[in-house]
Amino acid sequence: xxxxxxxxxxxxxxxxxxxxxxxxxxxxxxxxxxxxxxxxxxxxxxxxxxxxxxxxxxxxxxxxxxxxxxxxxxxxxxxxxxxxxxxxxxxxxxxxxxxxxxxxxxxxxxxxxxxxxxxxxxxxxxxxxxxx
Length: 132
Hints:
It is built from one helix and six strands; from the N terminus they run αββββββ. The N and C termini lie far apart (86 Å). It is α+β, with helices and mostly antiparallel strands and 132 residues long. It comes from Streptomyces brasiliensis.
């Protein structure tokens, strides 16, 4: 005794709706994947290309009312901008914060800046640098 097959004869009725849906899903996934890849590439390019100023604190020396901070700044030639520096007391409270501007055509600047404080600062922290 044989069992009746529920499959349609191959090639007689065209592609099934499942195959059409699978193809549409693959196309949609490929388009969305390409769009996501383009978006990530766009943001990565602008993150890397737009970073014009970077700096680091080399040393600092504190007194009762000021902190002298030695900054090393790297920037594009002709780029102007500023770096934000802050100082904290031993208990963690912020005792001073200031922005220091950097202009000119030099690509590397070593500068000692003085940050005025309300109490003795025990840290000198570079918060960040921005073009503009």
